[in-house]
Specification:
249 residues; alpha+beta; 5-stranded antiparallel β-sheet; 5 helices
């Protein structure tokens, strides 16, 4: 990873004081970025203890994925950081490749019905008692199918498989350009894009709440990122977090 090549491609939307650091190996960039001062991007060639939501382990391959955490001042735009990140990732992929990723609420990117990337966001309090946001991204960039474990080969995919048409540095720089540009946009515009890439809206989904399973249709994504689900009895439930499953693809 050549950090200078990332800096060379950054637009004026990216803060001039953005720090970029790279580690060959990291247990978890989400943890190791905490001492740094925002804005900062921490990249790793591999993560040995990467995890997603609910502390689930995240499969990584040295040199095969794009793994990073981005720490910024707390977002005040009213748009969830996972939504802004998902939109920026879609924009990046669509600009640099012919792939058309889709978004599964609230934090996963899919390609041809297989998981391509995961997003995790959390708020922290800095040493100066200021709220900051840490966004972690794990994206399968160039991982041949035979390297995926048997348990994942039918569930996960990679953007490339042996012959990437763009470098990781170009991908990361393009993502940063979109991400920071999106921060300046009206949240309605970002949400509209997010909805247009959602493969959940209008579909039958199931979820658990208070140890009970519910089935309904995903009707809308609210301005705060919550998912509106309508049950068979027309009762509407708003999900602010949790996990949903599609009944059929």
């Amino acid at each position: 990873m050549e950090i200078e090549k990332i800096y060379e491609k950054l637009s004026r939307d990216v803060p001039e004081n953005l720090q970029i650091h790279f580690q060959v190996a990291s247990q978890s960039t989400m943890t190791e970025i905490k001492p740094y001062t925002a804005p900062v991007l921490l990249l790793a060639d591999q993560q040995t203890q990467a995890h997603g939501r609910f502390s689930r382990p995240f499969f990584t391959v040295a040199g095969g994925g794009i793994y990073f955490s981005l720490k910024i001042s707390d977002i005040e735009s009213g748009t969830f950081p996972t939504i802004i990140t998902a939109v920026a990732l879609c924009q990046t992929i669509e600009k640099l490749t012919t792939a058309k990723p889709m978004i599964k609420w609230v934090n996963d990117l899919y390609l041809q019905q297989k998981k391509l990337a995961g997003i995790l966001a959390t708020r922290v309090i800095s040493s100066a008692d200021v709220y900051e946001t840490i966004i972690g991204v794990g994206l399968n960039f160039n991982i041949p199918e035979n390297l995926f474990p048997e348990t994942l080969v039918q569930q996960a995919t990679s953007l490339f498989s042996g012959n990437p048409v763009v470098s990781q540095e170009t991908f990361i720089a393009t993502f940063l350009n979109y991400f920071f540009a999106n921060l300046k946009k009206d949240s309605k515009e970002i949400l509209t894009f997010y909805k247009s890439r959602s493969f959940v809206l209008g579909r039958e989904v199931s979820f658990q709440q208070n140890q009970k399973t519910y089935i309904g249709y995903a009707r809308d994504i609210m301005p705060d990122g919550a998912l509106l689900v309508e049950l068979a009895n027309h009762e509407k439930i708003i999900l602010h977090s949790g996990e949903i499953s599609l009944k059929t693809w």
